[in-house]
Amino acid sequence: MTKTQIAFRPKKANSGGTRMYQPESVKLYVKPVCGWCRQAEHWLSSQGIEFETVDVIEDPEAFEEMERLSGQTLAPVIAVDGQVLADFGARELVVFWEGLGK
């Protein structure tokens, strides 16, 4: 397995009896050919989390918004109830999510 082919198997929602943070708003900024973006979409869906996906290549205003929020042009970027995580993989998303609401 190469470095870019990281296997990712999400945990089932509420595994271990813990309650998953339930956000008011989730916006995921993605680029069409981005493996990390697909992983993020898959993880959010597998956890039953509703989110808005914004293609920043298709929408130049969204690209500017993503850059303003994150301070960079790399994707993915996720904004969850005012908290922002930028340029991340699935593992970082899990850690970020576990820290929400604490």
What can you see in these coordinates?
The protein is an alpha+beta fold. It has a single domain, classed as Glutaredoxin (3-Layer(aba) Sandwich). Helix content is 32%, strand content 17%. A 4-stranded mixed sheet has the order 2-1-3-4, sandwiched between helices. The model is unreliable at 1-17 (pLDDT under 50).
Shape: globular
CATH superfamily: Glutaredoxin
Global mean pLDDT: 84
Uncertain stretches: 1-17
What brief labels describe this structure?
single chain, 102 residues, alpha+beta, Glutaredoxin, four-stranded mixed sheet, 3 helices, disordered N terminus
Short description:
By secondary structure, the chain is an alpha+beta fold. Helix content is 32%, strand content 17%. A four-stranded mixed beta sheet has the order 2-1-3-4, with helices on both faces.
Question: Mind sketching the topology for me?
Answer:
Blueprint: E1 26-30, H1 35-46, E2 52-55, H2 60-70, E3 77-80, E4 83-86, H3 90-99
Parallel strand pairs: 1-2
Antiparallel strand pairs: 1-3, 3-4
